[in-house]
Design goal:
single chain; about 400 residues; alpha+beta; Cytochrome p450; five-stranded mixed β-sheet; three-stranded antiparallel β-sheet; binds protoporphyrin IX containing FE
Length: about 400
């Protein structure tokens, strides 16, 4: 499939595996590409140049990320993602310190221990499905630990998360009904954790949320639920998808895999470059609050705008050698964690999880490749690789 319409519809597995040429096509088509009205909604406008992507992300008063942007089983806006400024700032003032590098560093040792528990038993096996064995359980286990819930419930959490992100449905109506039902279960699990911490504080994020205070304001019970709900979706699948993409890339580029084994100090740089190249969250959505325009293309109020971070990350106007994956790249101001006020709250946590995972994995399984006969299948929306069968 080579035309732009493919970006909004069914996609060829080959395009999903290597989408960069399609992004280039899109950028050449114009600053904003209008895909027309949809059958059951206002349709999409796609923005993919670095400059315009930054413009959209920098103007939340026109490009809102309010609750209308994405419906995923929630009953109130997700905090802070679906709260627009100025209210948004109050939540970030409160949450930013909790997710600051200093705090993330405090949980690195326990994260490493969890990762070791996951990867060490695999070494002798000689093969695994990396997605099932590592990429999916890892962030869930870390997340449960952060929330103060038992790690033994990881499978239940993974099923809930998948129920929202990959519901087994055939229509939009079914999706709304199914995700609403799963959403209620997520709220119930989170409420259980909150009740536990209301009774007795622990050394976990929910306890921190309950005690956090800015300008005399505390988070309400619903606020903590709405933050926790977002974490389910923002923090679990994203790290899973990133790990999938990175291991798939390294398994298919043996020189670069070996470079990391020879010099683990290169891993943080490799992570940034693979985040740029793969952009596991390829795009984010905004809804226009007024008539506006981008690069001369009019966009009416109420349109859904797909902000293609992945395209901006390979825009040759913004990057030297945009198409070369260079682990020694001097500057790497990628947009993989978004930009503007909604820039990812969990980026330090994500980077730590990814680094510890790559360090521990390569310590235990330094040489690996994709199993014979497997054609890696990348998913749309989030770039995970569920059939990542590796052998060593
Ligand atoms: C590599 C992994 C990750 C990637 C690629 C990623 C990507 C993103 C992106 C692109 C956004 C912007 C969304 C938008 O503008 O609409 C975002 C926001 C957010 N992310 Fe992440 N994320 C990752 C990991 C995490 C983790 C581990 C957490 C854990 C808590 C997290 C929490 C959030 C939150 C709370 C927001 C909303 C921030 C706001 O609206 O102010 N993310 N993320």
């Amino acid at each position: 499939m080579t035309d732009l319409m493919s970006m909004a519809g069914d996609q060829d597995p080959k395009d999903l595996a290597a989408p960069q040429p399609l992004y280039k096509l899109l950028r050449e088509a114009g600053a904003a590409v209008d895909m027309g009205e949809g059958d059951d909604g206002p349709g999409l406008v796609i923005v993919g140049n670095d400059e315009d992507v930054r413009h959209v992300l920098g103007h939340p008063e026109v490009f809102s990320s309010g609750i209308d942007a994405v419906a995923i089983g929630q009953v109130r806006p997700l905090i802070p993602l679906q709260i627009d400024p100025p209210e948004h700032k109050n939540y970030r003032k409160l949450l930013d310190p909790i997710f600051a590098p200093r705090n993330v560093a405090l949980i690195e040792d326990q994260t490493r221990a969890l990762v070791r528990d996951i990867v060490e038993p695999l070494a002798a096996a000689g093969s695994c499905n990396f997605h099932d064995a590592v990429a999916e359980p890892l962030p869930t286990t870390v997340f449960l630990q952060l929330l103060g819930l038992p790690v033994s419930r990881a499978d239940e959490f993974i099923a809930l998360k998948n129920g929202i992100i990959r519901p087994p449905v055939n229509s939009n109506e079914e999706r709304i009904a199914y995700t609403a039902e799963v959403g209620q279960k997520i709220y119930a699990v989170l409420q259980e954790a909150i009740d536990l911490r209301q009774a007795e504080r622990g050394d976990d994020f929910i306890s921190m949320f309950l005690d956090a205070e800015v300008d005399g304001h505390r988070l309400t019970n619903d606020d903590v639920l709405d933050i926790g709900y977002l974490f389910f979706l923002a923090g679990l699948d994203t790290v899973t998808a990133s790990l999938d993409c990175m291991l798939a890339y390294l398994a298919e580029h043996q020189d670069q895999r070996q470079a990391l084994v020879d010099d683990p100090g290169l891993i943080p740089h490799a992570i940034e470059e693979m985040l740029r190249w793969e952009t596991p969250v390829p795009g984010v959505i905004r809804v226009t609050t007024a008539d506006t325009e981008i690069g001369g293309c009019p966009i009416a109020e109420g349109r859904n705008v797909v902000v293609l971070l992945a395209s901006a990350n390979t825009d040759e106007q913004a990057w030297d050698d945009a198409e070369s994956v260079d682990f020694h790249r001097a500057q790497n101001r990628h947009l993989t964690f978004g930009g503007g006020v909604h820039r990812c709250l969990g980026s330090h946590l994500a980077r730590m999880e990814l680094r510890v995972a790559l360090e521990e994995w390569h310590r235990v399984v330094p040489q690996y490749r994709v199993a014979d006969g497997v054609e890696l299948l990348y998913t749309a929306n989030l770039r995970s690789v569920e059939n990542l069968e590796l052998v060593w």
